[in-house]
Amino acid sequence: MDATPPTREELCPFPLRQSIGFLLVRTALRLRLLGNTILQEAGEDLTVDQWGILNLLWESDGQTPVELARRADKDKPNVTRLLQILEDKGYVARQPDPKDRRSHRILLTEAGRAIKDRLLELGSTCHERACAGLSAQEVATLKDLLNRVYRNVF
């Protein structure tokens, strides 16, 4: 595979609707809308962002808000707001960190653990709809390319 990036001349003129940034944002917004629609149609009182925090806790329960923010690529105030909503809904609880009294650990409640399989199934439905018409290899390539672009812009 040729790894030579396009030249400046090949990129000009720079049509906005063909730029990587525009295409990524447009796609991300549609994916968020699709995910929220699937959750709503399934009768779940959750958003994609709340689902994402739960997903990170299903992978590793007992993280701090700072750890969750880093892993979710979100700022701490946003994660704090999401955690408050999830706590109000009874899916998570805060527990003082025994190693650092200034911090808390976020733990799944029984309700937070009980919805895991159902929400993962809805996530799979969203993924299948978003990737309809793509082969498994194309999906793997797309993920690889997106991760490479992400690393390039750091």
TrEMBL record:
Domain of life: Bacteria
UniProt keyword terms in alphabetical order: DNA-binding, Transcription, Transcription regulation
Any one GO molecular function term: DNA-binding transcription factor activity
Alphabetical list of PROSITE patterns matching this protein: HTH_MARR_1, HTH_MARR_2
A Gene Ontology BP annotation from the UniProt entry: response to stress
PANTHER family found in the cross-reference section: TRANSCRIPTIONAL REGULATOR SLYA (PTHR33164:SF64), TRANSCRIPTIONAL REGULATOR, MARR FAMILY (PTHR33164)
Name listed for the protein in its UniProt record: Transcriptional regulator, MarR family
Record lineage: Bacteria, Pseudomonadati, Thermodesulfobacteriota, Desulfovibrionia, Desulfovibrionales
